[in-house]
């Protein structure tokens, strides 16, 4: 095994099980799906917390935020989507129909 000078992300977060909670009867997910979504969400929240931590600025081994040096001009008008808001609107639309 050779050592690499390129930093890499190592996931040290553990999955946790919790009870299933469907949002409505038309939207049923398998327990495995819900566990995966919860794991990704929880892990991402930990990464964001570490990125914003003052200790991360001094530590080169933690997660690093990638910022393009030369942004793609085709993405100039790109607007991020709030997925939580989108899901709420879709749920409300489904209830109306």
Write structural notes for this entry.
It is a single chain. With 97 residues, the protein is an all-alpha fold. Helices cover 42% and strands 0% of the residues. The protein contains three helices and no strands. It has helices spanning 31-52, 54-58, 83-96. The longest helix is centred in the middle third of the chain and has 22 residues, at 31-52. It starts with 30 loop residues before the first helix and ends with a helix.
Summarize the structure.
With 97 residues, the protein is an all-alpha fold.
Order of helices and strands: HHH
Query: What's the total helix number?
Result: 3
Percent of residues in β-strands? under 5%
Number of E-type strands: 0
Proportion in helices:
40-55%
Derived from helix and strand composition plus strand pairing, the structural class reads mainly alpha
> Biggest sheet, open or closed, and with what strands and sense?
none
Q: What shape does the CA trace take?
A: flat
Topology:
Blueprint: H1 31-52, H2 54-58, H3 83-96
Features:
97 residues; mainly alpha; 3 helices; 42% helix; 0% strand; disordered N terminus
């Amino acid at each position: 095994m050779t050592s690499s000078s390129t930093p890499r992300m190592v996931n040290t977060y553990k999955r946790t099980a919790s009870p299933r909670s469907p949002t409505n009867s038309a939207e049923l997910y398998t327990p495995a799906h819900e566990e995966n979504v919860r794991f990704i969400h929880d892990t991402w929240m930990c990464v964001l917390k570490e990125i914003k931590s003052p200790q991360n600025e001094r530590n080169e081994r933690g997660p690093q935020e990638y910022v393009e040096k030369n942004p793609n001009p085709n993405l100039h008008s790109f607007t991020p989507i709030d997925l939580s808001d989108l899901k709420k609107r879709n749920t409300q639309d489904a209830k109306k129909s």
